[in-house]
Structure formats: C-alpha cells, structure tokens
Amino acid sequence: MKITCLADVEEFERTPYRDRWRAKNTYDLICQAANNFPDRPAMKFQSTPELDEEAIVVTYKELRARVIQTANALHAAEVNIGGTTSIILPNLPENHYTLWGAQALGIAGQINYMLEPAALRDIMIESETQALVVLGPSPDFDIWEKTLSIIDQVPTLKTVLRVNSHTPEQSASQTTGGVAIRDFTTALSAQNSSELVFERDINVEEVGIYFHTG
What is the pTM of this model? Predict the structure, then answer.
C-alpha cells in the first residue's frame, strides 16, 4: 500500500498489526527474512571511520545462524527460558547476535557501558541477570575492568561470555566468586546453527528486552 496522505494512514491503521505481520516475535522476523532474502546484507560493520576500510558484512542467513547459536549457547550456560541476559558492549556484531538471541530464549538487557560499576551492578541485580555478555580487555575501553569488579555481587549471575575483539582468545576461567567466564566465539562455535535446541512458545505479551533509560 502506498501512503501519500492522512486518509492512507487511517486506512492502513484499520488493520491491527497482529493481522498484518505473520511473525509473532523478533526471532520469527529474523527467520522469515533469512528465508526470503538469505544473501542480502542484514548489517555492515566498520570499526573505524576510515572510508577505505572494508566493512564486515553479515547476511540475513548468517545473522539467523549467529542468533540461533547465541540462544543455544545461553541455554547451554543454564540460562532459564524467560531468563535475563545482560549486554555490556559497544557497537559490535556480537551486540546484535546477543540482542536477538537472548530474546529467543528469554529477555535481553541492554546496559550503557559508560555507567559506573555500582550502576552496572544494580541494574543486573534488579534484572535478575543470569548471563552477561561483555567486552573483554581492550585498549580502547575500560568495560571489562569495571564489570569484573562487580560481577560477584550479582547473586543470580551464572556465566559470563566475553567478547574479545582486541586480544587473543583466552581459555575458560572463573571469577574469584566462582562465576564461569567463557569466550563468546568459542561458546557459539560449539552450538547448532540451524535450529534452537529448546522449545519455547513466545507470548506476544511477554517482556523481550529491558532498556535502562537513565
């Protein structure tokens, strides 16, 4: 339908959105896009503002595979169906994989990485965070250092998946309080990329994501 005036808008709005869209949730939307446009770019990522930098291109087919692997990796890390995965990342492809993968399993919790450690802790406690996806040690950010200082103060936290874009992959370890730390890429590579390994019927009224607006 071509919209050119207010009457067109009113006509469009007469159809409830639930009758217009065939997908019931974000995971279904991504899967439908991957089926319809598998090789089209879903996103392009550049780490610098240089015009001659070759962008990382992720197709819809690849996006679906990474989203599925992320959801399965979180499930393997004992995040409950409906549980919260907090995300403390700058703009990276892994941010999108986790944003949509966490919603396929439960709730995604985006947290502003510029907040102070106490605020990061309090948001995760309030969200009852079970898994955390966070940037590892980096010369450009202090995200890892801030987060590591408060991880053991979140009582519901079960595992940390570390996105390490600037340092060599490190083996699995744990915090002083015993919270498991794993490499994000390694965790995904061990998972099925074609289908979810758990069953979940997502109700359209369920919470999908938490945003801290302060």
Answer: 0.88
